[in-house]
Amino acid sequence: MASAFVVGDKFRNKVTHLLANSESALPRALREELEEVLEKPEPTILPFSTARKIKKYLQDKGHPFYLHELLEDSSLHLPEILKPPRNPELVARLEKIKAKLANEEYKRITRNVNTQEINRHGVLSDFRQQVRSVKAVVVTIFNFLVTIVAAFACSYMGSQYLFTETATRVISAVIAASVVGLAELYVLVRTMEGDLGEP
Questions:
Q1: Cβ 154 vs Cβ 179: under 8 Å
Q2: For 127, which of 47, 168, 176, 197 is 20 to 30 Å away at the CA?
Q3: b/e map of 75-107 (b: 16 or more CB within 10 Å)?
Q4: Region for 122 from its dihedrals, namely left if φ exceeds 0, alpha if ψ lies in -120 to 50, beta otherwise
Q5: pTM for the structure as a whole
Q6: Domain boundaries, the chain
């Protein structure tokens, strides 16, 4: 908090003039304070208490200039705030609390990671399981396509005994392959539903 002014040249000139012209009227204590302030090197610091005394003196004597005129080119003196050194025990406690909070945050982030399961199975077992599922899908699709092609071929070859025209034979083979394909899809979907339904 400010407790003094940093005075400028205007203050110095007017106070010097005041000291020269009013030797008898200026109180001795105030005169000594002002002389001490003027003798100090730059920046000149004027305490608030001395400024109050000057103001009272100027009011009592009815001088033609006022305190705000004296301090026109002055500024507040704000002393530098010295921070007290930190308590080492407090710093150590804060470090412990920070480490504890960081550890709790780490545990919260990794709470759903099971390290034993990762170590037991490893990455290769996951890869093997994925390859198995891909292999099962590929085999199922291949089986589906072979069934449809076989149904088409059987219907086409068997329809030669019923129909003589090629177009009719192809249409009947497509109808038979479509029926077999739909039946195969129905069975496949039911099987997948059963697999997905299992825990």
A1: no
A2: 197
A3: eebeeeeeeeeeeeeeeeeeeeeeeeeeeeeee
A4: left
A5: 0.36
A6: 4-77, 122-197
